[in-house]
Request: fold
Amino acid sequence: MTEQLNRTRLFNACCLALVVTAMTFAIRAGILSQLGAQFNLSDTQLGWINSMAFWGFPLATMIGGLLYNYLGARNLVLGAFLAHLVGLALTITASGFWGLLISTFLIGFANGMVEAACNPMIADMYHENKTTMLNKFHVWFPGGIVIGSLVSQYMTGMNLGWQLQIAVIIIPTIVYGFLIFGQKFPQSQHIETKTSTNIKNLFSPLYLFIIFCMTLTATTELGTQQWIEKILGNTGASPMLILAMVTGLMAVGRYFAGPIIHRFNPTGVLWGSAIIATVGIYAMSIATGGMVYFAAILFAIGVMYFWPTMIGFVGENVPKTGALGMSLMGGAGMFATGIWQPIIGGWLDSERTIALAAGATSEAADLMAGQAALDNIAIFPAILIIAFGILYFVMKNKRAAAMA
Reply:
């Protein structure tokens, strides 16, 4: 083990691990139709497969958050590395619904372990600049989706099977594993490490409120993106190119988040994001052709700051929740998104059935089903407009009282 803490190498390893997490998300979104056709799966069944990734994630963040103080970041990242390798191998060799269900759960578990290890580790290493560095770390979730969506688009166009698309993800997995071996990890000097204190502060009203909001922001962002190919497949726009464009904009926005957060403060950013996200999703629900791209840009601007800013908000305003508090934030978001996956699939199935019964063609029925699903998803950020508006004024009054 090296004597000096190499913050840059560890940060890069975390970023690459998040790229792997994002690529599993993007490529899974790109191969849903192939999986449905090969294994004769309905959208509801595909929704259950999707949900396994979102349920494995919160289980890992709960376990990782509780064990972070005892095992440390190094062992959690190693666990993520091994789970990624096994999960990807099992996905490639899956022969049907249950194989895909189990392997997707394991990949989700690996993704959650990345979140459980890396968020508190980065907050510890860069304690003087938590929110900005967490935004820079989370650049690589949308950045990885750009990579994954373009890989899926190209490989699908070349008639390369879904197994090969999954196999590509093994390459960055091996690289991030190489980066962490033999490295000294931070010793939690700048985060609360007393587990009883962490647990006690989980029940503070502010933390409970923000974790409720996290369930809505995550579903707004990931619920829409995971079904992008099904929802927008018949709008006249390319779903995977839209996914690449949306997540590319998100990556750029997160990289330059520092000045924006400083100018508007985290609660102002969250409130504005909820407004723009609502408008963007509604616009996608009525757009076709080239206008879908414009609506998707609004959606990207709306959701780009949600996830990292909320985790940074907890790190700065409820710091005694420690690694556990940060981990459970991500876990709550993914758990809620997992619950909604089969429901969104059910919306698509039922709305398509209604449209076909009314005499619509297959293509028109798919379009109508996707638009109806987006209408329903828009309810989530609409609720957040109210929630984050309340939070904005509460925190503003709190800061004014502290300065008085």
Observations:
- DSSP finds 17 helices and no strands in the chain.
- Residues 13 and 176 are 5 Å apart (CA to CA).
